[in-house]
Amino acid sequence: MSGSAANNESNGMSKICTVEEAVALVKSGDSVASVGVIGWITPDALLAGLARRFKSTGDPAGLTFYFPCGTGDAMDIKGMDHVAIEGHMKRIVAGSYVNPVDPKTGKRPELMRLIRENRIEAYSWPIGASMHWLREVARRGPGYLTKIGLDTYADPAQGGGKFTTLAEEDLIQRVNFKGEDYLFYPTWPLNVGFIRASTADEFGNLSFEDEPIHSSSLQIALAVKACGGTVIAQVRKVVERGSRPAAQARIPGVLVDKVVVDATQMMSTDVAHDSSFLGGQSWDGQTSDRLAYGADKIVARRAAREIRPGVTSIFGFGASSDAPTILLEDGHLTGGHYRDYQFTTEHGPFGGLVMSGWQFSANKYPEALLDGVTQFDFIDGGGCPFAALAFAQFDQQGNVNVSRFGVANPGAGGFIDIAYNATDLVFAGTFTTGGLEIGYEDGKLRIIREGKVRKFVRRADHITYPVRRNVMERGQRAKLITERAVFEVDAEGLVLIEVAPGIDARSQVLDLMEFNNVRVAPELALMDADLFRVG
Fold this sequence. Notes:
The protein is α/β, with parallel strands linked by helices and about 525 residues long. The protein contains eleven helices and 35 strands.
């Protein structure tokens, strides 16, 4: 326990303080870890306060930031974008980056500009590694050892997770242990931790009753304290010490040095509070959530047909997370049938409805919850045999890319852990992107305007996961689903197995791919017309 925490305990002093008092504890050169999953559980007031201090005083400078996941939405909950200031941020290590365009301003996050312009040292780790690494820091271990990520962009042979040329230090090593290759992530100290909860008492015992996910909150606190650092919690309210059952206090006050109260903190992007994300209430298998008609909805409808009752199914960020909403729209979850499906995400909710867009990560009407680190134990242990994920590029060698393409630098998120440990993989997305427009009439799909960007490329910009190799060597099964064609991946590459009615397989599919080793199934099937119905 730190000296300040020990004094607070012996003197009965409160740990409650202002944002300004809390961020004054951060020193130049510190390593600061912070929790957050898009808008969920982001300690936004603390990150904003730290940025304000730097802008007004020039301190603290030269900070290293450690974000296990993309933190904040870079809009009203800016999260990591608050501290994306040259001079303030020297280095960032993140499991993912918040990358989408702000619909209000049309701009991408400021952090993306710093990365594109090589203004900071930027690294991207798979979220599973970033979460499990915290556990090694907390137990004062030498580092995290894993096979997950070999031959991907995280592998030193493929760049070692470096996103800028200023990122010169090798934070990931490829090592041989007992005759086998692994990736090794050496530990280094964390000085400050920013975490968020719902409620604290004056001693700092934290509960999460209004938070639908917990992410790496506990593990950040454990890791920072193991390094002799300072843990600062942001909460919505304070209660009397001893007024809650012990089981509710998920983080004990001995791990917390300071508590800042922000009564206005949002549950997530555009959500002040919605109890449906917390579970514990009856559900009829219906919500008002609906997908707008278009190519994405066609993709989601086809992907939904791969989902099987009774199989724990995990969904990644992007087009793939729309598939459960299709099952909801079509009435498959009513009459208690939602209990036949076990939907989850990399962030730990089980049951209910997976959300998409800015609300992705938490489920509506969940039945159970694991914290983020334990969820990756579950994923890495093969607990999710079916996975639906997005794709930005797929190349001639059978590699899929979602981590870096064009001006986007989102990182892998949980993609690599999920893909490596599933048995059946679905990669869902439109065939091209950047202005694609489609129509459907007279039983035929029409491409009104082709997307400017091809997604089936000769060589992917990044290797997020080598699909074909793992199909060939580890027996995985994989499909790519688009609005106009469906492919299987086998040991030799891609096989076109379905094409949309009205689409010419040669001119509107094969000729738009930058490689010509795609085979056509002997009995090429038409995609079901019901997938294209308007509505």
